[in-house]
Amino acid sequence: MPKVFRIDIILFNYAYHFTCNLHVKSNGEKMKVYLDNNATTMLDPEVYEAMKPFFMEMYGNPNSLHQYGSETHPALRIAMNNLYEGLNAKDEDDIIVTSCATESINWVLKGIYYDYILPGKKKRIITSEVEHPAVISTCKFLEKLGAKITYLPVNSDGVVEVQSLKDAIDDDVALVSVMCANNETGMIFPIKELAAVAHEHGALFHSDGVQAVGKIPVDVQELDVDFLNFSAHKFHGPKGIGGLFIKDSRPLTSLFHGGEQMGGRRSGTLDVAGIVGMGKALKLAVEHFDEEKNVRILRDKLEDALLKIPDIFIVGKKDQRVPNTILASIKGIEGEAMLWDLNKHGIAASTGSACASEDLESNPVMEAIGAEADLAHTALRLSLSRFTTKEEIDYTIDVINTAVKRLREISSTYSYAPKGHKSGL
Ligand SMILES: Cc1ncc(COP(=O)(O)O)c(C=O)c1O
Under 8 Å CB-to-CB from 196, ≥6 apart: which residues? Predict the structure, then answer.
């Protein structure tokens, strides 16, 4: 049976239980906790309000010459300013709006292939083993077209070390592409140092900023990157809209050819509501950076509680991660089993990248850091947002403690006794 059907059936069963087991909050509402914010986030209500007029009132095409078109311009200007300010981009730089980070990433990698590798100016692209599938799959595609791709390993914290880039790079490298922060672990990568190494060898530097933009300050001038992509739905903006920062408006063969939108660099009628929403969302995210301290406090509370459970392992040091993410490995408990137990109690989490979770496969980042296969199957990713509350975290701690006890009791791979642990659960 195809895996997708298998998971559908299992989810159906759990969906049935889900309706029966929801905890009731003090105000009488059923408890629902969303801890999958690295997959996507809730639209901020203020963003929603900002977008609303552009669906049914100011719905003109900004490129039209009549007032329906021109009345959208002030809001577009404000939104684009918010993006420039949010990333500290200069006027000479380009920020091109795209449909998502996947498109931006495809554009950079394929553009570099067209501009440098196909004409024989350079041969190689360097990336890392733990990039998002948007990078890895595009690199695999370019490999088939003749590009030489090097996938840098990561250390036991899941981070690319600067020395490994130094060892791999030579003057034949057209582009180095390494993410700002990892989607599974939340670990922050040394982008400034990696970009400096790339530039010393005449290579351009791209960073997938999806899991960093809106969570921690990202300053494109400070990092000195040539390209950096982002996606609005990861920072409480709408889905289906993202962007690509291009330093000094450097030429790059376009992915989309057509009209003259975005200076002819990315054709297609502008999604005014989306752009307004993305600009507003980034502005709010930057304004809320102080509140990210609350996210960190709640994340650390959850993490400290998890670490009291025996045989649990959390990837990466807290202070080197974005403030919202925990990737835990709970020995003896399949990630999917835990996920469905949590789902039954109204808690949404993940075992890995949302795009890969239908496959019931092990967590790829856990594998890359060298975790044993059975541990890589026990990954549980919990990702908070500025909308997560203390009540939700207290509830999650209770549910996880109970679930660990229940699932380990029926686990064929976990035994409390031989290691002499007292579970204390
Ligand atoms: C690190 C990273 N890069 C790229 C993407 C793709 O983003 P989008 O959904 O905007 O295509 C994601 C989405 O999960 C991500 O986490």
Answer: 224
- Which segments of the chain belong to CATH 3.40.640.10? 46-287
Q: Which of 183, 191, 206, 239 to mutate to test the pocket of ligand 1 (most atoms within 8 A of CB)?
A: 183
Say yes or no: CB of residue 173 within 6 Å of ligand 1.
no
Query: From the first residue on, what is the mean pLDDT of each consecutive set of 10 residues in the chain (425 residues)?
Result: 39 44 69 97 98 98 97 98 98 98 98 98 98 98 98 95 98 98 97 98 98 98 98 98 98 96 96 98 95 91 97 94 96 92 97 54 80 82 97 97 94 62 38
Q: Which helix (H) or strand (E) holds 413?
A: none
* Residue 363 near residue 336 (C-beta atoms within 8 A): no
Cα 242 to middle of ligand 1, angstroms: 10
The CATH superfamily holding the domain 3-43+289-409 is: Aspartate Aminotransferase, domain 1 (3.90.1150.10)
**Cβ burial, residue 188 (10 Å; 0-12/13-18/19+):** buried
CATH of domain 46-287: 3.40.640.10
> Across the strands, what pairs with 138?
none
- At residue 2, what is the residue type? P
Q: Please, where in the chain does CATH 3.90.1150.10 lie?
A: 3-43+289-409
pTM: 0.91
Q: How many Cα atoms occupy the beta-carbon half-sphere of 84 within 13 Å?
A: 13
